[in-house]
Specification:
heterodimer, A: 135 residues, alpha/beta, two-stranded parallel ribbon, 5 helices, B: 338 residues, 8-stranded mixed sheet, 7-stranded mixed sheet, 6 helices, elongated
Chain lengths: 135, 338
């Protein structure tokens, strides 16, 4: 089975509190409905996020992972970093310095470059092939 | 030789989180900006510690010259000091000059004049002898790292008429200066406040926590309530009347000042929770200073205001919380010394 769908990068607004969450979620929800949603949230502009915003992030990540996808954070602002650490959820997300790095991370395992029909020990998978040879 | 001391308490316009200017720590209950020297560190305000330093140098009289705009913010001292009196002034320079004159009339020969802007430990007797040897009306104290607004003044030689001139001359580098080699904390930012606490734990300055050292490196002040399942890792300080709930962790030179509450499961690491603050459940406060609903993260140089009182806020008594009142546990009445 081939992976499908592009990586979606969404900008998180400056303030994500209980009133802003609904609007943001309305934009994000359709993206989570697809198969293997791959979403990068650009957090460079975020200056404040309350517990409703944190809960929304966690919920969206959970939904994405249930569909074999993922949700990652990129360019986290210092303010948001402090909030995530305060709420103890910083370790739950994959965080990248830039949206490019976050986007690239979805392609780290070359599932698009190599056909899924190839066995796991195929040389196309690099180091895994040497494991087969060693065994 | 009779020694006096004048401690000038003026408004502080800005105090940085790290090196960048920002707002001074705000009063937990009502958000008033307070000077950093008013902040309680290890159970006692920096201002009171300065007063104690002067009294320890055998100062016959200590005058607190206070800017009238911040008189109502003066912290309450832990004990009374009969030798200390408060002078309220609109013009601080004039008030200092007048105080020097009154010292002279009382027979006080020399006066140590200092602002409350920095915390300086100095051998005042050595400074006095240096000043006498210099034969100048005013000797400025300097430090190679930071500005120290401190002078030794000959009360008989400095009059209200020439005080400003003499002060200006000493600031411009005229005359001999006394280099202080002991501990100096500029108190220019919250990072300095935090550093003072860390230095006190590490024995780098004369500041000592108030209370009892219940085990090596862990101090508790009176009426501190620590749950038996809370973990306090040395060095740490728990202030008077503070409550530490179960499954909390207080570690790495953290200070919980008076009348605070650290709720279930929260970790406080390398941080100071200022007097009268509430920290909610299952939080992770690290490398920060907390004052009411304001969190100042020193590593990231970030200042946050958390509107949700269940996360951070002033420490309210439960009955007051139910009524919706917002009065604070900590008393901050004007200083009454005499």
């Amino acid at each position: 089975m081939q992976t499908s769908g592009p990586v979606i990068v969404m900008q998180v607004p400056v303030q994500l509190n209980h009133t802003e969450v609904k609007a943001f979620l309305a934009d994000l929800q359709p993206l989570l409905a697809g198969d293997r949603p791959r979403i990068v949230l650009d957090c460079s502009l975020v200056r404040y996020m309350d517990s409703a915003g944190i809960e929304m992030l966690l919920s969206c990540m959970e939904q994405a992972m249930k569909r074999n996808g993922d949700l990652k954070l990129a360019a986290v602002s210092p303010e948001l970093a402090v909030i995530l650490e305060l709420m103890r959820v910083d370790r739950l997300f994959e965080v990248f310095d830039t949206t490019e790095a976050a986007t690239q991370s979805f392609h780290a395992f070359p599932s698009l470059a190599v056909s899924q029909d190839e066995p796991w020990y195929s040389p196309a998978y690099g180091a895994l092939g040497s494991l087969k040879t060693a065994s | 030789m009779v020694l006096g001391a004048i401690l000038v308490v003026e408004t502080q316009s800005e105090a940085g989180v790290g090196d960048r200017p920002a707002l001074v720590p705000l009063h937990p209950a009502d958000g008033r900006a307070i000077p950093l020297s008013f902040v309680e560190i290890l159970g006692r305000s920096v201002l009171e510690r300065m007063v104690e330093l002067f009294l320890a140098s055998d100062a016959e009289s200590v005058a607190l010259v206070v800017d009238s705009r911040i008189l109502h913010l003066l912290p309450k001292f832990r004990q009374s000091y009969p030798k200390v009196n408060v002078v309220v002034a609109d013009d601080l320079e004039v008030a200092v000059a007048e105080t020097l004159k009154s010292f002279c009339e009382k027979g006080i020969d020399y006066a140590l004049v200092s602002t409350a802007g920095s915390y300086t430990e100095c051998d005042f007797i050595d400074l006095l002898w240096f000043h006498r040897g210099s034969r100048q009306p005013m000797t400025r104290v300097v430090n190679h790292k930071s500005d120290v607004d401190m002078w030794m003044v000959d009360c008989a030689k400095v009059h209200p008429d020439n005080f400003a001139t003499a002060l200006s001359a000493s600031k411009d580098g005229g005359g001999a200066s006394y280099m202080v080699s002991e501990y100096v904390n500029p108190l220019a930012s919250l990072a300095d406040v935090r550093q003072l606490a860390v230095d006190a734990f590490n024995g780098r300055c004369a500041v000592r926590p108030v209370g009892t050292e219940v085990r090596p490196g862990v101090w508790m002040d009176e009426k501190a309530d620590i749950h038996k399942r809370a973990r306090i890792v040395a060095p740490a300080y728990i202030g008077r009347g503070s409550k530490i709930c179960e499954d909390t962790l207080i570690t790495r030179c953290s200070t919980i000042e008076s009348s605070c509450q650290i709720d279930f499961g929260t970790v406080v690491e390398d941080s100071s929770v200022l007097s009268g603050s509430y920290v909610g459940i299952w939080l992770d406060v690290s490398h920060s200073v907390v004052s009411g609903n304001r969190l100042f993260n020193l590593h990231r140089d970030v200042r946050l205001e958390i509107p949700d009182g269940n996360v951070l806020g002033p420490n309210l008594i439960p009955a007051q919380k139910a009524k919706g009142e917002s009065s604070l546990v900590t008393v901050t009445s004007p200083l009454v010394l005499d």
